[in-house]
């Protein structure tokens, strides 16, 4: 990605508290998991065209988070947003995240696959060049 090097390639995964270089705890991993969940659902890397400085500034000063597609099921979007809370103490525990994910209705797609896409993991069915 543009402007990234080995050390900051996945800056978009880091919670705001990590970017400030202040002390942080395991809740930064909950934030990162929420970003990973978005990346898996969307089949792309968050902030892929942004520089480290731009990501850091926007996350810290403008509360930047990835845009959740309209086709994303409400419950899945809710999990992502809860994981991305700016306040670490307000993020769910990972056990709660697991429980919320287990409750998602994925039978016959139920919104997990965007309209017009084949069932199964749609990002792996896209032709790669």
Automatic annotation (TrEMBL):
GO molecular function (one): protein serine/threonine kinase activity
Domain Protein kinase residue range list: 1-113
**Which Gene3D superfamilies does the UniProt record give?**
Transferase(Phosphotransferase) domain 1
Q: Which InterPro entries match?
A: Kinase-like_dom_sf (IPR011009), Prot_kinase_dom (IPR000719), Ser-Thr/Tyr_kinase_cat_dom (IPR001245), Ser/Thr_Kinases-Pseudokinases (IPR051681), Tyr_kinase_cat_dom (IPR020635)
Organism of derivation: Oryza brachyantha
Report the protein name in the record: Protein kinase domain-containing protein
Fetch the PROSITE patterns from UniProt.
PROTEIN_KINASE_DOM (PS50011)
What GO cellular component entries does it have?
A: plasma membrane
Q: Which residues form a coiled coil?
A: none
